[in-house]
Design brief:
43% helix, binds alpha-D-galactopyranose, 12 strands, alpha+beta, single chain, four-stranded antiparallel sheet
């Protein structure tokens, strides 16, 4: 955790509100290592909380009014309790308002509060700055108002806030990763049972992130459209298979091969992506525990290929980076990470190769697109907490 970020937040809070914060919480962003758009299909994901995040400081205020200052934007917004609906703008305040609304259903959020938050997660890089804000707010508010909620419940509160207050029909991946991260380990999540396991990493690998600097927005209808297509295909398989199907998690590749021709080609491809991803994550989880990082990396490349051709949630910039990475023998695997349609590529490689590979990719990228991509090593870290 970036301690100078936390100091900056505390000082700015005291300067603006005249009191030191009563509670400070920190929540990391996340990187999706394998398992793309599988979470809301009740499937599997390997992910990590990362060493970039959001800190949020809180102190109580009298009456019904709440003030939230966003240091990075910079902007300050006031609203009154109770919060029953999203604000028209700005978008960021709805992550906080949504959490106040959902957490408020479990305990009394009263009187009002003053909040200050800031972070070091690049916006739009596909690293879930939104979930980090939701989780930092949920943790801090739960502590301030003495509302008890287990980590999984906090994750669901964050997701519900995002679903209902921003219109993004996201799954639970981002919130679970932010809460359950562990140092130098991946989080293996089963989104049906919501069981979460920690998979330790060897010192032989690290993750490099290449941010295309192409901004995407989860609210963009493309994400919700993909989710609707997955639900349509799941309903189709439920109608033709002789076993229960409540999500694409229940459909095998053999079943897809037998019946996909009866679906429209786009919906069929969306289903192929999710079914293939689930199988890849299970296999990758096994390989990782065996220490076979080479084969694991190959699955990352396959995942990207499927995103590009089946799920169509990639873009030329992401494809270019993955194609360049494919040609570099030092890179074990590379794929788009997160919702897609922009954002970042995550690469797996030996730590000694990270700098050189980052520079090679960045210069190829600027030659091709005329603008830079940023590369950085990201470290899997411990999950969100009250400080
Ligand atoms: C976004 C969503 C997640 C998940 C990923 C894709 O990050 O918020 O719930 O669906 O995209 O795997």
């Amino acid at each position: 955790m970036n301690m100078s970020l936390i100091e900056t937040i505390k000082q700015a809070h005291a300067r603006r509100f005249g009191v030191p914060p009563a509670v400070v919480a920190y929540a990391p962003g996340r990187v999706e290592i394998l398992g793309n758009h599988t979470d809301y299909n009740e499937g599997f994901v390997l992910s990590a909380a990362i060493d970039l995040g959001i800190g949020l400081a809180l102190s109580p205020a009298g009456g019904a009014s709440c003030t939230v200052q966003a240091l990075d934007i910079p902007e300050e917004i006031c609203f009154d309790l109770p919060v029953t609906s999203p604000a028209k703008q700005p978008l960021w305040v709805n992550y906080v308002r949504g959490v106040v609304n959902k957490l408020g259903a479990r305990g009394r959020i009263e009187p009002g509060f003053q909040a200050t938050f800031a972070g070091d997660i690049p916006m739009g890089a596909g690293l879930s700055s939104s979930a980090a804000l939701e989780i930092a707010a949920a943790l801090a508010l739960a502590r301030l108002y003495n509302i008890s909620a287990a980590p999984l419940e906090l994750a669901k509160i964050g997701q519900a806030a995002e679903n209902d207050f921003t219109g993004a029909h996201c799954g639970l991946l981002d919130q679970i990763s932010s809460l359950f991260g562990q140092d130098h380990a991946l989080v293996f999540s089963d989104f049906r049972t919501l069981a979460v396991e920690t998979v330790p990493l060897t010192a032989e690998i690290c993750f490099l992130l290449a941010d295309t600097c192409v901004k995407h927005s989860l609210v963009a209808s493309a994400y919700n459209e993909r989710r609707a297509q997955c639900e349509r295909s799941s309903a189709f398989f439920a109608s033709v298979l002789d076993h229960p199907v409540t999500a694409l998690r229940d459909v095998s590749m053999d079943e897809w091969n037998a019946f996909a021709a009866r679906l429209d080609p786009i919906t069929a491809r969306r289903a192929a992506h999710v079914i293939g991803e689930n199988a890849r994550v299970l296999e990758a989880n096994r390989l990782l525990r065996l220490g076979d990082v080479q084969a694991f990396g190959e699955l990352m490349f396959q995942s990207h290929h499927s995103s590009r051709t089946n799920f169509e949630n990639s873009c030329p910039e992401l494809d270019f980076i993955v194609a360049q990475a494919r040609m570099l023998p030092q890179v074990l695997g590379a794929r788009l990470s997160g919702g897609g349609f922009g954002g970042s590529v995550v690469l797996m490689l030996h730590p000694r190769d990270a700098d050189q590979v980052g520079q090679t990719l960045a210069s190829a990228y600027v030659r091709k697109f005329g603008h830079t991509c940023t590369t950085r090593v990201i470290r899997p870290v411990a999950g969100a907490r009250v400080l």
